[in-house]
TrEMBL record:
<dbReference type="Pfam" id="PF00378">
    <property type="entry name" value="ECH_1"/>
</dbReference>
<keyword id="KW-0443">Lipid metabolism</keyword>
<keyword id="KW-0456">Lyase</keyword>
<protein>
    <submittedName>
        <fullName>Enoyl-CoA hydratase family protein</fullName>
    </submittedName>
</protein>
<comment type="similarity">
    <text>Belongs to the enoyl-CoA hydratase/isomerase family.</text>
</comment>
<dbReference type="InterPro" id="IPR001753">
    <property type="entry name" value="Enoyl-CoA_hydra/iso"/>
</dbReference>
<dbReference type="InterPro" id="IPR029045">
    <property type="entry name" value="ClpP/crotonase-like_dom_sf"/>
</dbReference>
Length: 249
């Protein structure tokens, strides 16, 4: 199953939404919609006061399933991926309660969109974060990377497709805690439980209030970026670059 939801024992008011799509959690179009639905449902449950976004397998998230796009001779999959990602990112951002992202291994592309919209990030020591979009014939999620690092670093990472470590993001203040991989789930659940110990009504008001004072409309900003992704596809540039995916020496 690509997306599942669970209620961990001993963590009252916490709901865990887990992505498990082997081999690397690069989600197909439907997977992004499923993730959006699961996060919305968890946040809408009056018994839930905090959501943990987690993943199984080799890493947290490797973005969009590039092979699905390559198999489509038209633009249906691209449009679906654009809309699905926008839905999933928006679901995390607009979740009625705080969202804690538990990041292990790689967090790339769409993964940045998810954690950039989360309320808090707990990461394992082996976690790396980046946007390889220019190497994949795409654009987007700079909106969310800009929420994790300063402006000039965001631009350099975007242009170079380089990654940064969890420790580096912790130094910038965007990752709350860095822990050994074996302790990631416990650390994320501990933070979620601390948040969930607050009054549920006040938490929901606080989430709405904090979103309301954000200086950037993240949903509109991301959709603006996606327009350039589609332009690159219409020009043929995206397909040319995307077809090199998996063929690097």
């Amino acid at each position: 199953m690509t997306v599942s939801t669970s209620s961990p024992s001993g963590a009252d008011g916490v709901r865990v939404v887990t992505v498990d799509h082997p081999p690397v959690n690069a989600l197909p179009v439907q997977g992004w919609y499923d993730l959006a639905d699961a996060v919305r449902a968890a946040g809408h449950d009056p018994e839930v006061r905090c959501v943990v976004l987690a993943a199984e397998g080799r890493g947290f998230n490797a973005g969009v399933d590039i092979k699905e796009l390559q198999r489509d001779p038209g633009h249906t999959s691209l449009i679906g991926a654009n809309r699905g990602c926008a839905q999933a990112f928006a679901a995390v951002y607009a979740c009625e309660v705080p969202v804690v992202a538990a990041v292990r291994g790689f967090c790339l592309g769409g993964g940045i969109g998810l954690v950039g919209n989360a309320d808090a990030i707990v990461a394992s020591e082996d976690a790396v974060f980046g946007l390889p979009e220019l190497d994949r014939g795409a654009l987007g999620a700079a909106t969310h990377l800009a929420r994790l690092v300063p402006q000039h670093l965001m631009r350099t990472l975007y242009y170079t497709s380089r990654t940064v470590t969890a420790a580096e993001l912790h130094a910038h203040g965007s990752v709350w805690q860095v822990v050994p991989a074996a302790g990631l789930q416990d650390a994320a659940l501990a933070l979620a439980a601390e948040i969930a110990a607050k009054d549920g009504h006040l938490l929901r008001l606080a989430k709405a209030a904090l979103n309301g004072i954000d200086p950037v409309d993240v949903q509109r900003s991301y959709r603006f970026e996606q327009g350039f992704t589609f332009e690159a596809n219409l020009a043929g540039t995206a397909a040319r670059v995307r077809d090199t995916f998996g063929k690097e020496d």
